[in-house]
Amino acid sequence: MQNYSLFAFGGMIGPNSKIRVEAYAKALRQTLVPEHSVVLEIGTGAGFFALLAAKFGARHVYAIDPSPSVHVGRELAKANGVDDRITFMQQRSTDITLPERADIIVSDIRGVLPWFQHHIPSIVDARERLLAPGGVLIPEQDTVWAAMVHAPKLYAPHVVPWDDNAYGLDLSAARRRTTNHLHKGHIKPEQVLVEPQLIATLHYPTITDPNAQATLHWTAAQTRRAHGLSMWFDTELVPGIGYSNAPSAPHIPIYSQTFFPWTEPVDLVEGDRIAVTFRVHLMQQRYVWHWTTCVDRPDGREPKARFAQASFAADAPQVSASESNSHDDYE
């Protein structure tokens, strides 16, 4: 499981994260009752939002993170004169107990999408064990969207190294795998080929299932090449305060969007019918994605494209030590 470095935490509060930071600060200020509210920050890093909560008047703040950056947080709390009201703990939230329940739990332990590592199970656990009755979760809700995109620059690294080599080598076995690799990538509004459709709404005061599935349907309205799909989320931290990493929203570089490549690009024409099913499942501490795509012609002839893809298929196959060494018995 990934622990971020202190350098990485700095990137999360710097200029590339200004929209996010300002929204969280506004949500905290609006929700917090000075001299009364107890705040728990999950994924505190060096304690930036914990420091803000204390500055805004929280009675006490519990700042939790498995990273050693929490020790720097203690220094920052002392430098800002709030060390008597912040308790830093280098642990996972699922492993702690608190002397009191929190009135506000604030977190951003998502990745580019909300389905990331232990995010959802951690929020469910904290809500049940650590949040006071009537307490507030920040964020309250994430809404996830997807659309087909024209993205030749994002697609090229999946195929060009294996397709274009100067030595006549057949590298197709690698290419078949790398088109299953999903990754972060910025999409501009003009690259979105269809109206975005809803994948899921994650309402954190009630969510229990860390997994999700959705089937989306589109009819192509233009003739253009599609390279795959892009996914993003809108967040509502508290009612009326939030932000979006949609292609049409102001760009937030720490998020961008998630790109799901297709096995091959597809030249869409007006009237093509596209169906895509997404499935995401938490396997231990890692999410596994499946995305299947059907592109049917408007005249009902044979399908234009059928793809069945999975994130685990991007990995090199695991072999036993005996298999690995089977060709090593030479002098």
Automatic annotation (TrEMBL):
One of its GO terms (biological process) is methylation. Residues 143-282 form the Protein arginine N-methyltransferase domain. Gene3D superfamilies: Hnrnp arginine n-methyltransferase1 (2.70.160.11), Vaccinia Virus protein VP39 (3.40.50.150). It comes from the Bacteria. Keywords: Methyltransferase, S-adenosyl-L-methionine, Transferase. Residues 311-331 are annotated as: Disordered. GO terms for molecular function: histone methyltransferase activity; protein-arginine N-methyltransferase activity. InterPro entries: Arg_MeTrfase, PRMT_dom, SAM-dependent_MTases_sf. The keyword S-adenosyl-L-methionine applies. The keyword Transferase applies. This is Protein arginine N-methyltransferase domain-containing protein. It comes from Entotheonella factor. The lineage of its organism: Bacteria, Pseudomonadati, Nitrospinota/Tectimicrobiota group, Candidatus Tectimicrobiota, Candidatus Entotheonellia.
